[in-house]
Amino acid sequence: MDKIITFKKSMKKGGAAPDTNQQNMLDSEAPLKAEIAELTELVALYKQSNPDWNVNKEEAAKEAKALAALTEQERSNDVIVAF
């Protein structure tokens, strides 16, 4: 897509008429946009079906460890209060 956009900009600035390869590239723009739209839709569906799709496993482990430490601290506080 970047090549197509760049080429279209150069044509607007008064570039020469496209050769066969360049015309084929321009003709591929519509199917390429359709494919990008389809892939974008698939990514959105994946994100929707996997709410934790972007959670880094290390970050998740750190959060679980921090939660466990907090729970342990709360238990210690409860024991101190009981005495």
Search tags:
83 residues; mainly alpha; 2 domains; 4 helices
The dominant shape is rod-shaped
Any low-confidence stretches, pLDDT <50, length ≥5?
A: none
Main structural class: mainly alpha
How would a textbook summarize the main sheet?
none
Number of helical runs?
A: 4
Number of strands: 0
Output the helix-strand order. HHHH
Explain what this protein looks like in three dimensions:
- It contains four helices and no strands.
- The mean pLDDT is 84.
- The protein folds into two domains: 1-51, no CATH class; 55-83.
- With 83 residues, it is mainly α.
- 80% of the residues lie in helices and 0% in strands.
- The termini are far apart.
Question: In terms of topology, how is this protein built?
Answer:
Layout: H1 2-12, H2 20-27, H3 29-49, H4 57-82
Write a brief structural summary.
The protein has helices spanning 2-12, 20-27, 29-49, 57-82. With 83 residues, the chain is mainly α. It folds into 2 domains: 1-51, no CATH class; 55-83.
